[in-house]
């Protein structure tokens, strides 16, 4: 049983550490398995027990936090874009924490930027907190370099939410965008039309970045609300 494989990898002190970082998941649902071990298990299952791995993807919802992470990592190892997207769409509503959300990154999305972007737009319009956060995260990781389009900044800044985990991701996205696409991003800070929390968190994260010059950090500080 796959769950038993995870339990066999438990690290109790690490469980306590993880529980403190993820307040939205009850501690009883955390086994305490380190992420590299879960990634290795996902690869091993697909290589040696592929039928069990694919059956596991059909079993939702899962109980344990690590089961969700394993689910994400199995999807990320699949090689067919349509298959990956089918399982991703089915899985997103079951994500209940920032850590699972932020570590779920199928590499195949990079090979299909145009197709993936269509789904990203839909995810940004979702009413589910972690689906929206996931969409912003994909824009952050995959669309701030060669595939950047200034309209992506409009999509993200147009999101209106009181959810902490959405607004934190918006700030993280904008801070990264300042490092990579400064000229396109700066007007969103100088206009001071962002929510104070997002404006100030963006500036904080940008000032913590090693990719932004000291003089720019000093200027950003003057834009705090």
TrEMBL record:
Q: Pfam families, per this entry?
A: DNA_alkylation
SUPFAM superfamilies given for it? ARM repeat
InterPro entries in UniProt: ARM-type_fold (IPR016024), DNA_alkylation (IPR014825)
Q: Which PANTHER family match?
A: ARMADILLO-TYPE FOLD (PTHR34070), DNA ALKYLATION REPAIR PROTEIN (PTHR34070:SF1)
Q: What is this protein called?
A: DNA alkylation repair protein
Give the species this sequence originates from.
Answer: Capnocytophaga bilenii
Q: What is the lineage of its organism?
A: Bacteria, Pseudomonadati, Bacteroidota, Flavobacteriia, Flavobacteriales
């Amino acid at each position: 049983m796959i769950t038993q494989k995870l339990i066999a990898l438990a690290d109790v002190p690490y469980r306590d550490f993880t529980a403190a970082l993820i307040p939205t998941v009850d501690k009883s649902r955390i086994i305490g398995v380190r992420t590299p071990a879960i990634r290795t298990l996902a690869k091993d299952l697909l290589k040696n027990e592929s039928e069990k791995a694919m059956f596991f993807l059909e079993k939702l919802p899962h109980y344990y936090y690590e089961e969700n992470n394993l689910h994400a990592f199995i999807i990320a190892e699949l090689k067919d874009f349509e298959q990956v997207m089918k399982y991703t769409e089915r899985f997103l509503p079951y994500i209940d924490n920032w850590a699972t959300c932020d570590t779920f990154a199928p590499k195949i999305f990079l090979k299909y930027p145009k197709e993936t972007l269509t789904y990203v737009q839909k995810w940004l319009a979702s009413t589910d907190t972690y689906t929206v956060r996931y969409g912003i995260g994909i824009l952050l990781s995959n669309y701030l370099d060669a595939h950047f389009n200034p309209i992506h900044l409009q999509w993200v800044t147009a999101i209106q939410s009181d959810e902490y985990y959405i607004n934190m991701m918006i700030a993280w996205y904008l801070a990264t965008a300042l490092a990579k696409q400064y000229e396109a991003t700066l007007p969103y800070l100088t206009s001071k039309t962002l929510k104070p929390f997002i404006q100030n968190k963006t500036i904080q994260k940008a000032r913590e970045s090693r990719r932004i010059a000291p003089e720019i950090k000093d200027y950003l500080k003057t834009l705090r609300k």
